[in-house]
């Protein structure tokens, strides 16, 4: 099932995408589904970020080749997490705005996990019970600021630095899915979720042992090797087999 969040004129709604039609829901998707009776064509709605999380928990250095390209020797033995603010989230088609403070902003294609229920201390064998589904993400990073600051809050937290979408796929196996990032049609990153150092199951269990996760919270699971700079005028596409493609233009922040 593909769960989307859409704008119909000035109205915002969740819906279920089936082919070229969207069946609108009367409430959020974190409980029993309640269709409101309206079914619209895809071209009649505008796709938004599929969820508005209370927090985005991101995992760094979770692909060994990416660790090496960043100058590291080995991935950390435990997940290394940081937070991106909810205000960094944008949806498909919305522009990534390059801040004036940075001279090098890079893309990071990632699989995103969407939490479906309030949870804490989730054992690994119960992780599937708390996951609503999965979507594509781009953990946009001001690389020069990341290195200069010595911590990642500013470099990862600018407005528009967390594109999500285009929808939440509930029937998805995260164990070995191809993930790719293209910039202007050129492949920059190409990997598999099977290359993660810490699996989705491990990450949800570990993170929920640290903090309570709320319905709609998002976990970014790390990026494969191949990150590179983006500039105004570029178009960035993150594609994950079994989910779809998230596309965003790049502009200078005004």
What does this structure look like?
With 254 residues, the chain is mostly beta strands. Helix content is 12%, strand content 41%. The chain contains five helices and 20 strands. The strands form three sheets. Strands 1, 2, 3, 4, 5, 6, 7, 8, 11, 12, 14 and 17 form a twelve-stranded mixed sheet that branches. The chain has a five-stranded mixed sheet with strand order 9-20-19-15-16, with no helix packed on it. A hairpin with a 3-residue loop joins β19 (235-240) and β20. The longest helix is centred in the last third of the chain and has 9 residues, at 200-208. It is globular. The N and C termini lie far apart (38 Å).
Chart the SSEs and their pairings.
Elements: E1 2-8, E2 11-18, E3 21-25, E4 35-41, E5 46-47, E6 56-60, H1 64-69, E7 80-84, E8 89-90, E9 96-98, E10 105-106, E11 109-115, H2 127-130, E12 131-138, E13 141-142, H3 143-149, H4 153-157, E14 162-169, E15 178-183, E16 186-192, H5 200-208, E17 218-220, E18 229-230, E19 235-240, E20 244-252
Parallel strand pairs: 6-17, 8-14, 9-20
Antiparallel strand pairs: 1-2, 1-5, 1-14, 2-3, 3-4, 6-7, 10-13, 10-18, 11-12, 11-17, 12-14, 15-16, 15-19, 19-20
